[in-house]
């Protein structure tokens, strides 16, 4: 059954006692966190990101339409973290980078660039780690020149800001990744077994949320609640509502059932006229 006292003492001395299941848990939670760089201009920033990730134990790098990649500059800046670059997945759309991710966080240098929930890096890291015990989490980083565009922010459950000088708040891209990666590591070490969601909460991914939004938009058009000439603000607000509520699989099924029943009722009404 239990190890001998000699073995236990030896394990403690060699540090192995600390590298047991707890450390496996830290590594597996960190491995479920995707760092997603969108449309990066400078390949050196991609390499520096790989390095920033590796020192903190992150390994999953996703690149959406990088301007120049692969590149010798990226490899030089990775400085020994080229295994992260080699495993990096290059995508031609954000959709594929987010596939299978129930939690998406978008980092932003600008406070309240969109009226969306905004938290600081520490809180975001705690939430990410609490969830990465059971599913994938994506953290999005924007372009060097102008960050994330509105459509990208609207794919996020909330935005993350690194507190900084309000008059000079924009960090270099890879340095922003470094701070987030550090907070993720600290959070990973602090996470025991906290779960923020009820035990029967079955996560849904970004595609299922997009499916809900499309269905909702179509139903609101069918109901003539949504004016197709002015559709954008309403859908933005509804997206924000559902992204905040984080519906699970069951709830999505109920909502889609309600939408389908509404569409059927509209169909029947127009037939009987
Ligand atoms: N000029 C851009 C900033 C781009 S900096 C803007 O105004 O949005 C490149 C990226 O680094 C940002 O898209 C964001 O992902 C990250 N970043 C830089 N500073 C940050 C900060 N203070 N908080 C959170 N993310 C930041």
Short description:
This protein is α/β, with parallel strands linked by helices.
Note down, in words, how this protein is organized:
With 273 residues, the protein is of the alpha/beta class. It has 2 domains: 22-190, Alpha/beta knot (3-Layer(aba) Sandwich), CATH 3.40.1280; 206-271, Helicase, Ruva Protein, domain 3 (Orthogonal Bundle), CATH 1.10.8.590. Helix content is 51%, strand content 11%. It has 12 helices and 7 strands. The chain has a 7-stranded parallel beta sheet with strand order 3-2-1-6-4-7-5. Helix 2 runs antiparallel to helix 9 (173-190) and helix 3 (43-56) runs parallel beside helix 9. It is globular, with a radius of gyration of 22 Å. The termini are far apart. The model is unreliable at 1-21 (pLDDT under 50). S-adenosyl-L-homocysteine binds at residues 107-110, 141-142, 144, 146-148, 160-162, 164, 169-171, 173, 176.
> What structural class do you assign from the helix and strand content?
alpha/beta
Largest sheet, spatial ordering of strands: 3-2-1-6-4-7-5
- CATH topology assignment of the largest domain: Alpha/beta knot
Query: What CATH architecture of the largest domain would you give?
Result: 3-Layer(aba) Sandwich
Helical segment tally? 12
User: How do the SSEs run, as a string of H and E?
Assistant: HHEHEHHEHEEHEHEHHHH
Overall CATH class of the largest domain: Alpha Beta
């Amino acid at each position: 059954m239990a190890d001998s006292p000699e073995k236990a003492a030896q394990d403690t001395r060699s540090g192995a006692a600390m590298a047991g299941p707890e450390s496996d848990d830290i590594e597996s939670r960190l491995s479920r966190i995707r760092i997603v760089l969108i449309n990066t201009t400078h390949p050196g920033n991609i390499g520096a990101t790989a390095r920033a990730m590796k020192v903190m134990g992150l390994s999953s790098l996703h690149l959406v339409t990088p301007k120049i990649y692969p590149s010798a500059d990226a490899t030089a800046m990775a400085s020994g973290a080229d295994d992260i670059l080699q495993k990096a997945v290059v995508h031609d759309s954000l959709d594929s980078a987010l596939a299978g991710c129930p939690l998406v966080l978008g980092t932003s240098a600008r406070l309240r660039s969109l009226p969306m929930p905004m938290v600081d890096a520490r809180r975001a890291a705690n939430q990410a780690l609490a969830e990465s015990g059971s599913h994938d989490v994506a953290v999005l980083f924007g372009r060097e020149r102008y960050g994330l565009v509105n459509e990208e922010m609207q794919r996020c459950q909330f935005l993350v800001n690194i507190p900084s000088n309000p008059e000079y708040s924009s960090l270099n891209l890879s340095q922003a990744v470094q701070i987030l990666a550090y907070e993720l590591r600290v959070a990973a070490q602090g996470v025991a077994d906290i779960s923020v969601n009820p035990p029967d909460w079955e996560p849904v991914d970004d595609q299922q949320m997009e499916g809900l939004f499309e269905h909702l938009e179509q139903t609101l058009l069918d109901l003539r609640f949504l004016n197709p000439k002015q559709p954008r603000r309403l859908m933005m607000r509804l997206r924000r509502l559902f992204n905040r509520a984080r519906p699970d699989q069951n709830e999505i099924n109920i909502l889609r059932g309600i939408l389908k029943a509404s569409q059927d009722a509209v169909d029947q009404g127009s037939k009987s006229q």
